[in-house]
Amino acid sequence: GSVVASYPYDDSPTHRPTGVYSKSADDEVFKYLAKTYASHHPIMRTGRPNCPGEEGETFPDGITNGAQWYDVEGGMQDYNYVWANCFEITLELSCCKYPPTSELPKEWENNRESLLAFIEKV
């Protein structure tokens, strides 16, 4: 896990594991939507999720192009965009994939304003 808003494409023509910016035709729209979410999130907007084992990982403005972060061949985000014209971003909301129940109220507080801002844009 991490704390970042990721946008298409997640796959790249080279399939290198990481570091390839895979730009879609709607790249600016995706960046705008991802930044909208990230800019309202107290951790995401810093671009430094500080996840255990990945303390040096950074995401400018709290966003990343999926393939630049890590290549995912055949992912749902790309499939839906290419074949159904669905504009999706992927939200990584926690360093922990399954946070304990006791942390859920804090996660809600961290994401409430981001969700509302995102809904307003959509």
UniProtKB/TrEMBL annotation:
PROSITE patterns: PEPTIDASE_M14 (PS52035). The active site is at 92 (proton donor/acceptor). The keyword Ion transport does not apply. GO terms for molecular function: metallocarboxypeptidase activity; zinc ion binding. Residues 1-20 are annotated as: Disordered. One of its GO terms (cellular component) is extracellular space. Residues 1-122 form the Peptidase M14 domain. The keyword Protease applies. SUPFAM superfamilies: Zn-dependent exopeptidases. Keywords: Carboxypeptidase, Hydrolase, Protease. GO terms for biological process: peptide metabolic process; protein processing. Belongs to the peptidase M14 family. PANTHER family: CARBOXYPEPTIDASE D, B, PROTEASE M14 CARBOXYPEPTIDASE. This is CBPD Carboxypeptidase.
